[in-house]
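Sanity check

After download, print the first record. It should look like this:
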Amino acid sequence: MNKTIITVVGKDTVGIIARVCTYLAENKINILDISQTIVQGYFNMMMIVDTNHMEKIFGEMADELHALGEEIGVDIKCQKEEIFDKMHRI
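Expected structure tokens:
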């Protein structure tokens, strides 16, 4: 399984989750876990997804999600699980 960590942060607006999840579904990316909170009007979401069936390369997906984030007014970042784990190891 190819796991990727996706984070979405920004001012809360209608449709953030819908737009991100639509992109993922259209690209055969399966959501394994999702957590989202809204604190004083700021939206924060973290997803763990499986990109095993995705037909694009990782960089293309990351660039497209970043562009989607700019379009809807949030910051979307993607990291491969192994890199995320190494960066957050104590």
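If your output differs, re-run the checksum step. Summary of this record's structure: The CA atoms of residues 29 and 59 lie 14 Å apart.
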